[in-house]
Design a protein that fits this description.
Number of domains: 1
Number of helices: 10
Distance between the termini: 55 Å
Order of helices and strands: HHHEEEHHEHEHEHHHE
CATH class: Alpha Beta
Largest sheet: 7 strands, mixed
CATH superfamily: Alpha/Beta hydrolase fold, catalytic domain
């Protein structure tokens, strides 16, 4: 009986340790953002590299020529968040763009900026919490990031009260936008959303990450990982999902699969 108890405790300790490592790998901020999933994405993007490079040069030239502004706001939980604003003097609206999981605005969003600008829009490229110049220690897969979107919308409404706002995002950025719709009000001037390759829930996305990183089914680990999320990062994977949040909104959405 004593041996059985010891073995049982060892198994529990190993299980807790494994889930804690999984939690850190999928959500902790690292100095080197290019983990395996991001490296794989780079391979997928190779055929479009010339378009990405063209967009990157356009934004870089804007920065060099001092035609951009660095904006900073505070999140609901006190994080300092950064955004890069490219103002169009003849602006007919502002496109708020959101990058994906463990990515950057440069890789995900720069390619589209000059096209939006030519169409007559100003552009706000935000760094998600934990990314680039924004503070934060843990990625929350759109749960807390969606609250940050509301903070950005309120900031834009205060600074540019007559400007229409379009929300655009890719991957986790797309899901973040969809999760934010629950709290977008009519007076927020948000007219539509452009969402590319989003997912339904943080819960499912973490399962996908576990399978990608560890090549195993994560269902036996996910509930404990969620407990680490609650205890350490102060959010729950099942706190909200894109479907339930969209149901509370009548804002038009263009989905890009």
């Amino acid at each position: 009986m004593k041996i059985f108890l010891i073995v049982f405790l060892i198994i529990i300790i190993i299980y807790l340790l494994v889930t804690f490592i999984m939690f850190l790998l999928v959500s902790k901020k690292f100095n080197n953002e290019l983990l395996p999933m991001s490296k794989g994405l780079n391979e997928i993007l190779k055929p479009y590299q010339s378009i990405i490079d063209k967009g990157s040069k356009w934004v870089s030239d804007k920065i060099i020529n001092d035609e951009t502004s660095d904006l900073y706001i505070k999140s609901k939980d006190g994080l300092k968040l950064h955004g890069l604003f490219i103002e169009n003097k003849k602006s007919k609206g502002i496109i708020l763009e959101v990058h994906g999981y463990r990515s950057t605005c440069e890789r995900d969003l720069y390619a589209s900026c000059h096209e939006y600008y030519k169409m007559g829009y100003s552009i706000l490229l935000i760094d998600n919490r934990t990314s680039n110049l924004s503070e934060g220690s843990y990625i929350t897969f759109g749960i807390r990031e969606s609250e940050d979107i509301i903070c950005w919308i309120k900031y834009l409404n205060e600074k540019y009260p007559k400007q229409n706002i379009i929300l655009a995002g890719i991957s986790m950025g797309a899901s973040t936008i969809l999760m934010s719709l629950k709290d977008v009000k009519d007076e927020n001037n948000v007219k539509c959303c452009l969402v590319d390759s989003g997912y339904i829930s943080a819960y499912d996305e973490v399962l996908y990450c576990i399978k990608h990183y560890f090549h195993i089914n994560g269902k036996i680990f996910i509930h404990m990982i969620n407990m680490w999320c609650k205890l350490i990062a102060k959010y729950s994977l099942d706190e909200k999902n894109t479907v339930s949040c969209m149901e509370k909104s009548n804002i038009p959405i263009l989905f890009v699969p």
